[in-house]
Amino acid sequence: MSVNSEEFTMEKRRGLIVWVYSLRQLKNLRRFGFVHYVSRRMKYVLMYVNEENVVENMEKIERLHFVRHVDISHRPDIEMNFAEKIGTKAAFQVMEDKDDIEERNATIRLAENV
C-alpha cells in the first residue's frame, strides 16, 4: 500500500438556489457544482459551487432555458460570532425614548390573595 502524501484542502464554497421550470434537466446542473437538495414540489435546487467561480457559474446557469431564477446564499457574509452579544445587557436593550417609558413597580399577587 502506498501512502498518498497529498493533504486535504478545504475549498470555500457558496450556496446557490436555482429556481427551475421543470426538473427534467437536473443532470445539466450537476456539471456546475454539487447538488445538495432538490425540492420537487417547489421546483428549486440547492447546490454548492466553488467560491472563485460563483459569478461565472451563476451567469451560465441563468442562461439555461429551464432556469427561472438564481439566488445566491448570503450566509458566508454574515458574522456568526454571537459570543459578545449573549448574556450582556446590550443584547437585551431596546432603543426607545426614555421619556415615553414609565417605570412601574409591579407586584406579583397570587390568585388566592386577590
Anisotropy-based shape: extended
The largest pleated sheet is described as: 4 strands, antiparallel
The CATH architecture of one domain = 2-Layer Sandwich
Which CATH first-tier class of one domain would you pick? Alpha Beta
Q: Tell how many strands the DSSP assignment holds.
A: 4
The fold-level CATH name of one domain is Alpha-Beta Plaits
Contiguous low-pLDDT stretches (5 residues minimum) are none
The CATH homologous superfamily of one domain corresponds to: Peptidase S8 propeptide/proteinase inhibitor I9
Q: Kindly, what is the distance between the CA atoms of the first and last residues, rounded to a whole number of angstroms?
A: 82 Å
Query: Considering DSSP H and I runs of 4 or more, what fraction of the residues is helical?
Result: 10-25%
| Relative strand content | 15-25%
The average pLDDT score comes to 82
| Tally of separate helices | 3
Determine Rg (CA atoms, Å). 25 Å
Protein name: UPF0298 protein OMQ_01058
Organism: Enterococcus saccharolyticus subsp. saccharolyticus ATCC 43076
Subcellular location: Cytoplasm
Main location: cytoplasm
Describe the structure.
The protein has a domain at 13-77: Peptidase S8 propeptide/proteinase inhibitor I9 (Alpha-Beta Plaits, 2-Layer Sandwich). It is built from 3 helices and 4 strands. The model has no long low-confidence stretch (mean pLDDT 82). A hairpin with a 4-residue loop joins strand 2 (34-39) and strand 3 (44-50). The longest helix is centred in the middle third of the chain and has 9 residues, at 54-62. The termini are far apart. The protein has a 4-stranded antiparallel beta sheet, covered by helices on one side. By secondary structure, the protein is α+β, with helices and mostly antiparallel strands. 11% of the residues are buried. It has helices spanning 26-29, 54-62, 89-92; strands at 13-20, 34-39, 44-50, 67-72.
